[in-house]
Here is the input.
Amino acid sequence: MRLGGKIILQVAGLFVLYYIGSKLQEWSGLPVPGSIIGLLLLLTLLLTGVLPAGWVDHGAGFMLAYLPLFFVPVTVGIIEYPVLLSGTGIVMIIMTITGTWLTMFIAGFTSEKLSKKGGA
Amino acid sequence: MAFIMLLLTILTFLLMGKIYSEYRTPLLTPVLTTVAVMVAVLLITGVSYETYMEGAVWIDRMLGPAVVALAYPMYRQRAVLKKHFLPIVVSVIVGVITAFGSGYAMATALGLERELLLTILPKSLTTPIAVPVASEIGGIPSMAVAFTMIAGFTAILTSPLFFKYIPFGNSGKGIALGTAAHGLGTSKAVEYGEETVSMSSVAMSLAAIIGSFFGPFFVWLLAI
Here is the structure.
């Protein structure tokens, strides 16, 4: 049961970082979501070596394994927006498809040009 | 009732995960099937979303800390990023600007109302990031998930044809998929090999970070 304890402790650590991120957002008034500030905090701690990766690996692995479950509740909320099934919804779907192709093209094209120049 | 809904959501998700691992087709992605089942349950039983959320909020509260956990896989990708730093960073920045810019241009041209415009803007970002970004900029998070999924499925279903006419190399394919279509795009990258997968994963992570700063900035800059 040592692994179980590790997971619980590390997940608790992630909650603390999330809480700090949210508070930092409140104080600073930065328009960036608190969860992302928490993410950058953890990334900085890992990259600088202040926090060894072994202190978060199991907790992060656990949370990411169930990540899709965590956005089910918010997604079920589409039940309150029947606009998705209207003509407007179809227009938005077409925009999304077109935008995705355009983004794939521009991002991929830029990468092709840059890696050729760099000789990679 | 709220507690039953909480339990039912978790059980449905676990069951759908089992079904998915059996068939492995993207259309059976557990989020998609679980949401479909829960929406059907609410419609049939007449339970309101508000009542549903009284229980499901316990699952919802895990989303924030899970976003923080994304730092760990990003940390592990650092070697790939370091190796191709400039091409990756520049391409992803250009890609994120294209994603937000094209969404804005099309929505404005077609006269989409403001709230819906803000809802489709983060569609290229990975779902757990698109949710808080949509709510930060004033869009509707639940609908944003739907459009994020549509962006992902666009890449999954059309990329074979797309890359047939636009023959990017392996790393270009990865950058294209990860920047425009996050995790679902990355799942498709598996078909193009290891290099495409690692480029796609890095592009997805980087797009998530850049997008969460660029999104609010873009909305402020254009005074949307």
The CA atoms of residues 55 and 208 of chain B lie 29 Å apart. The longest helix of chain B spans residues 194-221.
